[in-house]
Design brief:
- The complex is a heterodimer of chains A (631) and B (260).
- Chain A has 21 helices and eight strands.
- With 631 residues, chain A is an alpha/beta fold.
- Among the domains of chain A are: 146 residues, Up-down Bundle (Four Helix Bundle (Hemerythrin (Met), subunit A)), CATH 1.20.120; 182 residues, Rossmann fold, CATH 3.40.50.
- In chain A, the strands form two sheets. Chain A has a six-stranded mixed β-sheet, with helices on both faces.
- In chain A, a hairpin with a 2-residue loop joins β7 and β8.
- The longest helix of chain A is centred in the N-terminal third of the chain and has 29 residues.
- Chain A is extended, with a radius of gyration of 46 Å.
- In chain A, 20% of the residues are buried.
- With 260 residues, chain B is α+β, with helices and mostly antiparallel strands.
- Chain B contains seven helices and eight strands.
- In chain B, the strands form two sheets. Chain B has a five-stranded mixed beta barrel with strand order 4-5-6-7-8. A three-stranded mixed β-sheet of chain B has the order 1-2-3.
- In chain B, a hairpin with a 5-residue loop joins β1 and β2.
- Chain B starts with 5 loop residues before the first helix and ends with a strand.
- Classes of the chains: A alpha/beta (631), B alpha+beta (260).
- At the A-B interface, α1, α4 and α5 of A face α3 and α7 of B.
Chain lengths: 631, 260
């Protein structure tokens, strides 16, 4: 799940590019041409090569151009981050150069194809093709730098952490070495490096944590120093970009023990200088390293500074990532604040109507006024008190923590055997026999006893299946199910038989009618359905459509009740015929006439036939007007 | 270290394999086997490319080996006589006599005169009409053959308009009309793409000159204002002659040397 990548797999160096395209041209186009071929064929041969190379270059370069993300189309957070890391201008220039190369190659191909049309010998065409391909290769060679830069950008882009800019995020910021990475290590599974030197974290790190059954993103930033924006280096600018564009809850971490190398005054000063970035975001000031020194032990000036925060309505919390006290509280508090902030924002937005309409909290209406608390009988309460405090069993994990390096998992220690037998190694076979068969010395006796018991049970009828009384319906269902299973098996077998090794099959239209009403009737009767009184059914209607019937719809009639003739079109073989005998005669005559033609396979009157190819009146004689040189 | 560089992070925390160095060394030692396998197996165009690359590599290798060897050995210097040194018994003679001096002067003068029109390509192959023109058959039954199609690259001026097609005898197709030439300055060794002003002389025939046909050895006039040359008197040089050095119809471009 990445939010900003270049979609290509690997970018090529310019030399590889050229090699690949040229070898592809050599493989995918015809390779043989002789000088005795027609000149048009020779020209076509070489034009094809030039055009093919151009197409291949064009395709590859345009995939590069489309795969790299456009800085204007991605989320502003990623646009800013890319600007910080790769320099927007350089990036755009590199892509621009590739674009220019694309157009230049297209132009070269156009020019040389135009020239090839006037090539009059194989040698000339060949030289022109060589010049064209050479020119394209030179253009690509000049792009070596851009391609190299883009490859580096692509690799780095793929390594960026996948930060979703729209989901719930906690952003941790502060001076270097205050304990931001330790904090994120404590609440998430992100394994960020923690070292005593400043700027250990050099890029953004992301971890995930859970709160209230929701996924929360926690973003760790590199430390920020207190100097103006222009003096900031790339690493700090990443943190600034994250602060500026991600809508997240901000945790400003301070080190009150001053072990990071900066005093509390400096840290508060930094806070003031980056305060504009905290607008509209829930903010939390966290005092870290309270295991060394507590808030109460600070001297009054420093306490006053911290008090300043509280006066500004910014919550201040204490924690220590070393002793892990207060870490969970900080996380919970931050999550709660962010959640309420997000809900507020959503309520103010226009989309809230759609959501509120669908939300409905149902509370049961109280029946009467009396309360009904949970009831626990007194005896149970007494018993609970008697039992005393629950003895916590010592788990393996506790043992592991205790023994640290000396711990080894020993599964045999809980075996239910006398102590000297517990750790014995038991083989599986001994002298050709299974040891498991001889575990118990009385095993044969036990086996015989078991068998006797079993016989008794079988005799007494413990295992007799109770015949469930099925009513008629269930019996019917069972019967039908059996029939269905049988029919399915038959169809499967028939299908398998039907595939008789490659014999020619009549096309579907040529086969005799497979689906007919009679077949339907017979099959249904087989299944036991009563088909006697189905005169009005749909399937029966389809049969009787040969003779012309009046349509079901009512004929269109005007106000006087006269029916318009177009609603009742007579079919062609009946139009103009007075009665049934004449119709039969007409049909017979038609058949007779057709028969002879069919027999001799001659062209009929409908077959296109030009009897006279050169009628005399068109090909001879003088003309009254006009010339005769166009006949 | 960025968050998803898992391999590097693992290596940083737990180090490399115990036999890592050994494996690297062995892999390197096996490389020559792969090379020889490739050299034997590759056929066709890939084989040729590989052979070419390998050849240049070998040349480089041999050069470095030779350079190393030269450093080691010491060569004995054989007594070389510097040029122009004469033995002692010939020192007093005067070499050239007066007559010889005169004739050499005359020869010099003649050469200078001839050298006034010295061009980089003094002799070029003459192009026959059959090469330069192709007969274009016209008429309803394609019998009339008085039109000619120019098959070589040509230059037509800026305001050129064709004669009416019916009366046009020499057809110069648009694809073969060029306006720019790649001109090299012989001393600066730099090449510029300069617009052509006109065709001065085509060595094969004056007819070609009048048509503007450009073949190898043609003298063309190019617009050199791009170079920014200035005469002694302070005037800006605008046009210069250049001689065409390639066959433009085979290469699709006109390459020329500037005549300074």
């Amino acid at each position: 799940m990445s939010f900003c990548t270049a979609k290509t797999n690997v970018s090529l160096t310019s030399q590889d590019f050229i090699d690949i395209v040229l070898s592809k041209t050599q493989r995918k186009t015809p390779t043989v041409v002789h000088k005795q071929y027609k000149i048009s064929r020779i020209r076509q041969f070489y034009m094809r090569k030039v055009k093919f190379s151009q197409q291949t270059f064009h395709d590859k370069l345009s995939t590069i151009l489309t795969d790299f993300p456009k800085l204007d189309d991605i989320h502003p957070f990623y646009a800013d981050l890319m600007n910080v890391l790769y320099d927007k201008d350089h990036y755009k220039l590199a892509l621009g150069q590739i674009n220019i190369a694309l157009h230049l190659i297209d132009n070269v191909s156009k020019d040389y194809v135009r020239l090839l049309k006037y090539g009059d010998s194989l040698y000339r065409c060949k030289q022109l093709k060589k010049a064209a391909l050479g020119r394209m290769a030179t253009i690509m060679k000049r792009q070596a730098q851009s391609l190299q830069y883009l490859e580096q950008v692509r690799q780095h882009l793929s390594r960026l952490p996948s930060i979703d800019p729209n989901t719930r995020t906690l952003l941790i910021c502060g001076f270097p070495n205050v304990g931001k990475s330790s904090f994120i290590n404590k609440i998430t599974r992100a394994d960020v490096e923690v070292q005593p030197y400043a700027f250990t974290t050099k890029s953004l790190f992301v971890g995930h944590t859970d709160h209230r059954y929701l996924r929360w993103q926690v973003v760790d930033t590199p430390g920020i120093l207190d100097h103006p924006l222009e003096d900031r280096n790339t690493i700090e600018m990443q943190a600034i970009a994250a602060l500026a564009h991600l809508r997240a809850a901000i945790l400003y971490v301070m080190d009150i023990s001053e072990q990071c190398g900066h005093t509390i005054e400096q840290q508060v000063a930094l806070f003031e200088s980056i305060k504009p970035l905290f607008a509209n975001k829930p903010l939390l000031v966290v005092l870290n390293k309270t295991d060394v020194i507590r808030l109460e032990e600070l001297n009054p000036e420093q306490k006053a500074l911290i008090q300043g925060f509280i006066n500004d309505d910014i919550p201040v919390m204490e924690m220590s990532t070393f002793s892990e006290e207060g870490v969970m509280n900080v996380k919970t508090e931050a999550c709660e604040r962010l959640l309420s902030h997000r809900i507020e924002v959503k309520i103010k937005s226009k989309k809230v109507e759609g959501i509120l309409n669908r939300l409905h909290v149902a509370l049961p209406k109280p029946r009467d006024g009396c309360t009904r608390p949970a009831f626990v009988p007194e005896k149970v309460i007494e018993k609970r008190l008697e039992k005393g405090p629950k003895i916590k069993k010592k788990t393996e994990r506790d043992l592991e923590v205790e023994q640290e390096d000396d711990y080894s998992l020993d599964l045999k220690k809980n075996y239910d055997l006398p102590a000297d037998f517990k750790y014995d190694v038991i083989p599986e076979f001994w002298e050709g026999k299974n040891i498991a068969d001889y575990i118990d010395p009385d095993i044969m006796a036990k086996l015989e006893e078991l068998e006797r018991e079993e016989e008794l049970r079988v005799e007494s009828g413990v295992y007799e299946k109770e015949e469930e009384e099925m009513d008629d319906e269930e019996k019917e269902i069972h019967r039908l199910a059996g029939k269905i299973r049988e029919k399915k098996a038959i169809i499967a077998i028939e299908g398998r038989i039907g595939r008789s090794g490659g014999a020619p099959v009549m096309p579907r239209a040529g086969r005799k009618r497979e689906r007919s009403v009679s077949r339907l009737r017979s099959e249904f009767e087989e299944l036991g359905v009563d088909m006697s009184n189905k005169s009005g059914a749909h399937f029966s209607r389809t049969k009787s459509r040969s003779a012309s019937r009046p349509p079901i719809k009512k004929a269109r009639a005007d106000s006087a009740g006269r029916v318009s003739s177009s609603s009742r079109v007579t079919p062609r073989d009946q139009s103009g015929i007075r009665n049934v005998e004449l119709k039969a005669k007409a049909k017979k005559m038609g058949h007779k006439a057709q028969g002879k033609m069919n027999q001799f396979g001659k062209a009929g009157e409908a077959d296109r036939h030009i009897a006279v190819k050169m009628p005399r009146h068109l090909y001879s004689g003088k003309r009254g007007i006009g010339k005769t040189d166009r006949r | 270290m960025p968050q998803n560089e898992h391999i590097e992070l693992f290596q940083k925390r737990y180090g490399l394999r115990m036999d890592h160095q050994e494996r690297q060394r062995k892999k390197k030692a096996r490389e020559h086997k792969l090379q020889s396998k490739m050299a034997q197996k590759l056929i066709g165009i890939k084989g040729k490319i590989f052979a070419k690359k390998r050849y240049s590599e070998k040349v480089q290798l041999k050069r470095t080996i030779k350079a190393h060897e030269e450093k080691k050995t010491r060569k004995k210097e054989d007594g070389k006589v510097p040029e122009g040194a004469m033995p002692a018994y010939l020192l007093d003679r005067e070499n050239t006599s007066q007559a010889k001096l005169l004739s050499s002067m005359v020869k010099q003068k003649r050469k200078e005169k001839a050298g006034k029109w010295d061009v980089p390509l003094p002799k070029v192959r003459a192009q026959s009409e059959a090469e330069v023109f192709r007969v274009l058959k016209t008429g309803k039954s394609r019998r009339k053959g008085w039109k000619r199609l120019v098959t070589k690259v040509c230059f037509v001026g800026e305001g050129f308009t064709r004669k009416p097609p019916k009366y046009e005898r020499f057809v110069r197709p648009m694809a073969l009309r060029f306006k720019k030439a790649h001109v090299t300055h012989p001393e600066l060794k730099a090449t510029f793409c300069l617009p052509i002003v006109g065709v001065k002389k085509n060595p094969s025939s004056p007819m070609y000159t009048s048509l503007g046909v450009i073949t190898k050895g043609t003298i063309i006039e190019v617009n050199v204002s791009e170079l920014g040359l200035v005469t002694q008197g302070g005037k800006v040089v605008w046009g210069k002659y250049a001689q065409v050095t390639n066959n433009p119809e085979n290469d699709g471009c006109i390459n020329a040397i500037l005549l300074v």
